[in-house]
Specification:
With 480 residues, this protein is an alpha/beta fold. It contains 14 helices and 20 strands. β5, α6 (126-138) and β6 form a beta-alpha-beta unit.
């Protein structure tokens, strides 16, 4: 069986797809999101799902049995997705693996001559994202990122209208991820007293892949990997890429910002044996000119004692964005939304189907072989994910500070100070003791947007997070 080096020698698919030819699809990773892929893509006319893969044989067999029962189609199944990539009867693949696998799955798919729809975030690190772009270009592959709102006509029309100046210049864009990640939610990583046996259905070597193959010191393998640095990127890198992408889109899709810093912590989880590592409460500032992006993550409820999913909102938005202009603002929702003036009176509505059609858009580009047909090319996804990585890098390099010290440091940044003051109110409502659980303030990091490397103060430490160490043979190559 070939591994990375062998796949690099594989010929691109020679089969030319015509309008009446089926696109034969394979799906890598069939947990909750991957099962969704099975449903979405198999309903698109001209798409035929032929194979699935998962390092968890239990998940794999359940998904295959369910599909055969519902559709009457028996799928080929592979525990090792490298065998799926070698299958000449597959034209394109989709992938819903954990974050640490995204880059290598994409690079190997491109090298195997297959187009790929990859879930967000595009990458686990900034360097990986650029390698994904390079692979897509070198092998002339269609690589689509799963930021579905990029296929929203309502957002496209709204941002065009806003940038025509109808409510003045954009002053800032805020993104929000207010999702339940506190006690009694799947935001908790329940620890164990010692290493837990790996489930017998899981090929743990394959599941870990590029990541460190560490003993399992948590009760749950799946999903909560989001909150471990080895495999995930926290909620700012989980839900965040959707809203980061909308924010960048509103600003005209700029590259990486010149500067970034982040503040936050993992609050309110100690009493339930949580061993999670990523922040569940976080704010980040991205120094775009002339209008910055500010991102806010909250995992705790509105106040202590309420149901875990009783969350705060900002102008009615819990998960989404708010584009503030001189003469009004646009709080986005899945299907578009209303533009308001600064007195909160409705000005104009934009209506659409949200992200519906995003999977079809990928198939359209696979057929046409035109990147211009894509709504979410890999480079767009790479840049939006990179913002999440920048914020996390600042946070991981941060120091514990008192609220008064942080306020003093934010004195010349009124928008970030506003976010921080509202964070303090939120933590107080949840009775968080900031003496026992102090806030971490990360340093301001300076980025060279062209080289995608940090420069100046803190750059030596920050650049250690641009690329991870890989575990043989699961190595993202320097030259794809």
């Amino acid at each position: 069986m070939a591994v990375g080096a062998g796949l690099a020698l594989a010929s691109p698919t020679a089969r030319v797809l015509g309008a009446n030819d089926d696109i034969r699809l394979g799906i890598i990773g069939v947990g909750s999101q991957g099962s969704g892929h099975m449903g979405y893509f198999s309903k698109i006319p001209g798409v035929r799902l032929v194979a699935i893969s998962d390092a968890d044989r239990g998940q794999l067999d359940r998904a295959a049995a369910r599909f055969e029962k519902d559709r009457g189609v028996k799928l080929k199944t592979y525990v090792d997705f490298r065998q799926l990539l070698e299958d000449k009867e597959i034209d394109a693949v989709t992938s819903a693996t954990p974050n640490h696998w995204h880059a290598l799955v994409t690079v190997w798919a491109c090298q195997a001559g297959k187009d790929i729809y990859i879930e967000k975030p595009a990458s686990h690190t900034i360097w990986e994202g650029r390698k994904m772009v390079e692979a897509a270009r070198k092998y002339n592959r269609i690589v689509q990122i799963g930021t579905q709102k990029r296929s929203s006509e309502a957002h496209k029309e709204a941002f065009a209208w806003i940038n025509e100046g109808h409510i003045g210049k954009i002053k800032w864009v805020r993104g929000f991820c207010y999702k339940a990640r506190g006690p009694n939610t799947n935001g908790i990583v329940h620890g164990t007293n010692g290493p837990k046996p790996i489930p017998e259905s899981v090929d743990y070597n394959l599941w870990c892949g590029p990541a460190d193959m560490v003993p399992l010191h948590r009760t749950q393998l799946h999903y909560v990997w989001h909150w471990m640095w080895n495999t995930g990127n926290g909620d700012i890198g989980n839900q965040g890429p959707h809203e980061m992408d909308i924010a960048r889109w509103a600003l005209g899709d700029p590259g990486l910002p010149a500067r970034c810093f982040s503040i936050g912590g993992r609050f309110g989880c100690r009493e339930v044996g949580d061993v999670g590592e990523t922040a569940n409460t976080q704010i980040a500032f991205f120094d775009y000119k002339p209008a910055p992006i500010i991102f806010e993550v909250r995992g705790l409820p509105m106040k202590k004692g309420l149901k875990p999913d009783t969350m705060d909102n900002y102008r009615g938005t819990r998960v989404g964005d708010c584009v503030q202009c001189e003469g009004g603002y646009f709080p986005t929702d899945d299907a578009g939304g209303w533009v308001f003036d600064n007195d909160r009176k409705r000005v104009k509505q934009f209506v659409g189907r949200g992200g519906a059609g995003h999977h079809e858009n990928f198939i359209k580009a696979v057929r046409s072989r035109q990147r211009s047909d894509q709504n979410a090319d890999i480079e767009v996804g790479h840049l939006s994910a990179a913002l999440c990585h920048m914020a996390n890098t600042s946070y991981r390099l941060g120091q514990k500070m008192k609220p008064e010290e942080i306020k003093a440091a934010l004195a010349d940044n009124p928008e970030m100070l506003d976010s921080f003051n509202r964070m303090l109110e939120h933590l107080a409502a949840n009775e968080v003791d900031l003496e026992r659980e102090p806030i971490t303030m990360g340093p301001m990091l300076t980025m060279d947007p062209q080289k995608e490397q940090y420069i100046g103060e803190h750059s030596q430490m920050a650049n250690m997070f641009v690329k991870r160490n890989y575990r043989e043979p699961f190595v993202v190559p320097e030259k794809v």
